[in-house]
């Protein structure tokens, strides 16, 4: 078997068995990255450091040492800080920023023996759904280079689809792991809010941000989650998750899955995606799942709530980028306010400026009650409705995105682009865990099925995800 065709778990088994070395696996990824450089999945490739880390992993193995990801090549989204490795957030503002420390998740990856092959491309400051907001060029979808990979973790999803790494870290504030996973045909897990430490994640909207994973299958996602999750003193919002299961069975017999009427009663949902989703529901039913319908009325308000709240939080979080402490400073400034204005004008991209402006607007006196406060109240309603729907079932299922990956340049209207998050944002608003898994295709591109679970039931949703992928193989002979 070609090394690059293995899943992460298969690679770990092969490394343990001695059939493959980390040096070989890492070289295979680095070569693939070079051969497919045109995809632009990476902002920084760490060729020398990765080669060194792989050699050290092989030495540790030879001494009989073991660690869960010892020698496994992985990639990290470029908004997660890495000690000594440039971390740009895909912004010109941070083009020269070399962090002096590792994010907790990076420390955990290293402690588990993983080899970091590079930092992945993304939408600037994680704001976007197509990766076209990167200051480092667009990413081309590995399955069809005329299309986008989704966003904002587009590089992370794409590098897994292109076999440039065995897994990647992403971040998800409103869908940025799950939506690109759907567009690239990989598995994207957004864990429960607080399950994985965000220390060292460059903040976008702190009440919504969550680090998670992009992998080839659900077992790989579970293996990564076990390494990454846990309480971290340096992130006050982090929690102790429960013990996750040892294995996934992919068994949905007797499980109740809920679909909200509002998910399907919309003209925003593409017919091809609708058909693929319905086929997935059928297949799950054949495997013994019970399908239940519910109503989540506040679903329609979720996008507006998300763009008010995330903008407000972003405008506050991004105030630190002022040309003084972090990143670039514009030249020829003659006062402190001149530094702020010129640096922000020159180094922030258009979408980031749009978010900062709308965020400041909704927080300003006179508008606060009408926008921010109102959105916060509706947030509570959305959360209650999702919790209530979950009360009577094992998981809620939906399409991950209303369409397949759009063509490059096709989405020039930001408001249309925002629609691609309609199924994913309510999950961040509610703090729940969700996974996107591929099932079938439409317009020649993969379709994602989203499985939303109760807090800390990552084990449960990954198990259902595994069943969806088994059914996909059965139905589509994939
Ligand atoms: N596409 C959404 C946005 O632009 C979500 C981004 C994210 O999850 N980081 O805000």
Q: Bin the helical content.
A: 25-40%
What small-molecule ligands were found?
glutamine
Low-confidence stretches: none
Amount of beta strand: 5-15%
What topology, given as strand order, has the largest sheet? 1-3-2-4-6-5-10-11-9-7-8
Mean pLDDT: 97
Q: What kind of sheet is the major sheet?
A: 11 strands, mixed
Structural class: alpha/beta
Q: What characteristic shape results from the CA principal axes? A: globular
Compute the number of strand runs.
11
How far apart lie the N and C ends? Answer: 17 Å
Roughly how many Å is the radius of gyration?
Answer: 21 Å
Number of alpha- plus pi-helical segments: 16
Tell me the series of helices and strands, N- to C-terminal. HHEHEHEHEHEEHEHHEHHHHEHHEEH
Describe the structure.
The structure is a single chain. This protein is an alpha/beta fold and 478 residues long. 40% of the residues lie in helices and 13% in strands. The protein contains 16 helices and 11 strands. The protein has an 11-stranded mixed sheet with strand order 1-3-2-4-6-5-10-11-9-7-8, sandwiched between helices. The two termini are 17 Å apart. 55% of the residues are buried. The model has no long low-confidence stretch (mean pLDDT 97). Glutamine binds at residues 126-129, 152, 171-176, 204, 310, 421. Glutamine binds next to strand 4.
């Amino acid at each position: 078997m070609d090394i690059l065709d293995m899943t992460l778990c298969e690679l770990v088994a092969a490394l343990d068995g001695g059939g493959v070395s980390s040096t070989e696996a890492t070289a295979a990824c680095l070569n693939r990255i070079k051969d497919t450089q045109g995809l632009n999945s990476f902002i920084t490739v760490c060729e020398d450091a990765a080669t060194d880390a792989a050699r050290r992993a092989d030495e540790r193995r030879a001494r009989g040492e073991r660690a869960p990801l010892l020698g496994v090549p992985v990639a990290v989204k470029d908004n997660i800080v890495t000690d000594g490795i440039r971390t740009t957030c895909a912004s010109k503002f941070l083009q020269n920023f070399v962090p002096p420390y590792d994010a907790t998740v990076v420390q955990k990856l290293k402690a588990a023996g993983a080899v970091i092959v590079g930092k992945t491309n993304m939408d600037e400051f994680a704001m976007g759904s197509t990766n076209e907001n990167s200051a480092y060029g667009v990413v081309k979808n590995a399955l069809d280079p005329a299309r986008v990979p989704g966003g904002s973790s587009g590089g992370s999803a794409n590098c897994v689809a292109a076999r440039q790494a065995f897994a990647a870290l992403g971040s998800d504030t409103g869908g940025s792991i799950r939506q690109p996973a759907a567009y690239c045909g990989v598995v994207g897990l957004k864990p429960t809010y607080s399950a994985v430490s965000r220390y060292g994640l460059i903040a976008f909207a702190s009440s919504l941000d969550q680090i998670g994973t992009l992998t080839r299958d659900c077992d790989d996602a579970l293996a990564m989650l076990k390494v990454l999750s846990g309480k971290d003193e340096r992130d006050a919002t982090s929690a102790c998750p429960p013990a996750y299961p040892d294995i996934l069975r992919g068994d949905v017999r007797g499980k109740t899955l809920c679909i909200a009427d509002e998910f399907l009663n919309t003209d925003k949902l593409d017919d091809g995606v609708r058909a693929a989703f319905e086929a997935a529901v059928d297949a799950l039913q054949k495997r013994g799942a019970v399908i239940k319908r519910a109503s989540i009325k506040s679903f329609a308000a979720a996008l507006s709530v998300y763009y008010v709240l995330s903008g407000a939080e972003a405008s506050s979080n991004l105030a630190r980028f002022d040309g003084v402490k972090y990143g670039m400073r514009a030249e020829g400034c003659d006062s402190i306010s001149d530094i702020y204005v010129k640096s922000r004008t020159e180094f922030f991209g258009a979408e980031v400026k749009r978010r900062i402006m709308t965020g400041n607007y909704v927080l300003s006196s006179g508008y606060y009650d009408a926008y921010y406060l109102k959105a916060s109240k509706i947030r509570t309603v959305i959360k209650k409705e999702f919790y209530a729907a979950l009360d009577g079932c094992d998981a809620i299922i939906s399409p991950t995105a209303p369409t397949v990956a759009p063509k490059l340049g096709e989405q020039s209207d930001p408001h249309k682009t925002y629609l691609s998050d309609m199924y994913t944002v309510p999950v961040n608003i509610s703090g729940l865990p969700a996974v996107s898994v591929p099932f079938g295709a439409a317009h020649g591109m993969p379709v994602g099925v989203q499985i939303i679970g109760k807090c800390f039931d990552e084990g449960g949703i990954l198990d259902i995800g595994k069943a969806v992928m088994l059914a996909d193989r059965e139905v589509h002979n994939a």
